[in-house]
Fold this sequence. Notes:
Elements: H1 7-21, H2 32-64, H3 67-88, H4 91-104, H5 108-134, H6 137-141, H7 145-154, H8 157-173, H9 177-202, H10 206-234, H11 237-241, H12 250-281, H13 284-291, H14 294-298, H15 302-320, H16 324-351, H17 353-361, H18 368-385, H19 388-395, H20 398-423, H21 425-445, H22 461-481, H23 485-507, H24 509-512, H25 520-526
Helix pairs in contact: 1-2, 2-9, 2-15, 2-16, 3-5, 3-7, 3-8, 3-12, 3-13, 4-5, 4-8, 4-12, 5-8, 7-10, 8-10, 9-10, 12-13, 12-20, 12-21, 13-21, 15-16, 15-19, 16-18, 16-22, 16-23, 17-18, 18-21, 20-21, 22-23
Amino acid sequence: xxxxxxREASHTYTMQVExxxxxxxxxxxxxxxxxxxxxxxxxxxxxxxxxxxxxxxQVLVVRYFSTGDYGALAFGLGIVGLFQIVAVLGLNEAVAxxxxxxxxxxxxxxxxGTILLATGAVILSGVIIILAVYGPLSHFLTQExxxxxxxxxxxxxxxxxxxxTLLDALFASFxxxxxxxxxxxxxxxxxxxxxxxxxxxxxxTITFLAYGYLLASAVGVLxxxxxxxxxxxxxxLLRQLKSLTIQVPTSEILSFVLPGLxxxxxxxxxxxxxxxxxxxxxxxxxVAYYRAxxxxxxxxxxxxxxxxxxxxxSAARLFAKSDYAGFNKLYWQTAAWMSVVSFPIFxxxxxxxxxxxxLLFGARYEQSGSILALLSLASYxxxxxxFNLQTLxxxxxxxxxxxxxxxxxxxxxxxxxxLIVRYGAIGAGIGTAVALISYNLLMQVGLLPxxxxxxxxRRYFSIYLTIALGASGLLVIQSLMSLSLYVALPLVVCISxxxxxxxxxxxxxxxxxxxxxxxxxTRLLLT
Length: 527
C-alpha cells in the first residue's frame, strides 16, 4: 500500500502536519485540539506499520518454537525490556524537553552538555546492568538453563535499545520527523523481521534468534547515529558544536528526570514484572502462555502512543495561558478520539480474544485467550481515560505521581504473587489488569483539584456508553454461540460503525479533517 502512495503528495501532507505542529511557522493561531489530532495522525501511520511488522514476526516465532523455548526467549526479552527502562533513566524525556530549548536560545554549551550527560549515563547504567546479570543477579532471576543462556545474550540489548530511545528524542528535538519514520517504524522492525524469516529458512535454533535480534538492533543504532550526524551537518550545527566549551546543566536535568522516572518505571514494572514472577514461581510454559498474547493486547495502546508526542506541548501551552477550558477540551476530545479509533482493536482482542488467540498461535495456546481479554481490557481502559499521567506532569504534581506510582507497583506485586502461585498465567493476567486499572484510576483522581477541569466530561458519556455496551454485547454473543472469527468480524465492523455514528458530531471529524468532504463515501457516513 505504501508503494502506491504518491511521494509528492505524501511529502506535501508531511510538511502541512509539521507546519501545524510548530505554531511559530503558522500565521494564524489554530485550535490546539485540532492541530494535535491532525499531527498525531502522521505518527499513527508509522506506528501501525511498525506494529504490523513486529506482530507478524511474533506470530511466526510463537508458532515455530515450542512453548518451553519461546517461554525462555520471552522471559529474556521481558527482563531486557524492564532493564532498558532503567538504563534510560528517563533521560529521553529530559533530552526532548531541554535540547529544543537550548537550541532555540542558542545555548549550545548546555545543548552539548545535555547530550553528553545523557549518553554517558545511559552507557554507564547499561554496563552496570550487564555486569550484574553476569554476576550474582543471574541465578536470582531464573534457574532455567536455556532462559539463563538466552538472557546472557539478550542483556547486551539493554544499552543498545536505551541508546535507540535517546536517539529518538534527539531526532524529535531537531525536527527529523521523516528520519524517525524511516528508522523507527521501517528499518528497525524490518531488520528483526528479516532475522525471523532467515531463522525459519535455515531451520535454526532459539539461540540463533537471540544473536540475530542483537545484531539487528546494533545495525539499527549505528544507522541512526549516521543519520543524526548527517542531520546536524545539514543544519550547520555540527560545525558549531565542535568548538564549544561544554556546560552540563546537571541540576536542571535531574530535577526533571527523577519524578518522571518513577512513573516510567512503575508503568514498565506493572507490564513486565509478572513475566519475572511467572518464571520464578512457576515454569517457562506459563511464561509463554502469558507473554504470547501481550503484543496483541498492546495493540490497544497504539493510537495513544501515536498521540503522546504532541499532547504534552499542546497541554503545556494551554496551561501556561491558564486556559483550563481549552485544557479540558484538549484532554477529553483527545481521549474520545483515541477511544473511538481504538475500539475495533479492543472489540477483537477483548470480545473475540479466544478465537483470535487460537487463530494466531494454535490450539495449544487456547487458554491464553482469557489472558488476552484481561490485558486488552486494562490497556484499553488506559487509552479511554486519556493522558492523565502526562497531564499531571504538565500541572507539576510530581510528588503525587511518585507516591501513586509506588502504590501501583505494590498493588501489582501483592495481587500477582498471590494469584500466580495458585492460578499460574491466568493469575498473572488478573494481577496485571487489576494493577493497571487501579493505577489509572489513581492518576485520574489526581486531576480532581484542577480548576475548570472535569475528571470525567459528561458530554462524551454517550460515546463511552456505546463502547461499553457494544463490547459487552459482542462478548456475550461470542460466549453463547462460539462464533468463528470470520463470522464475528462483520459484527465488529457493524458495532464500530455504530460507535462512529454516535461519536461523529462530538468529535468534530469533518472540522478536523475537512478534506474528507471530497470523498463521497466518507461524506455520506460522517454528515
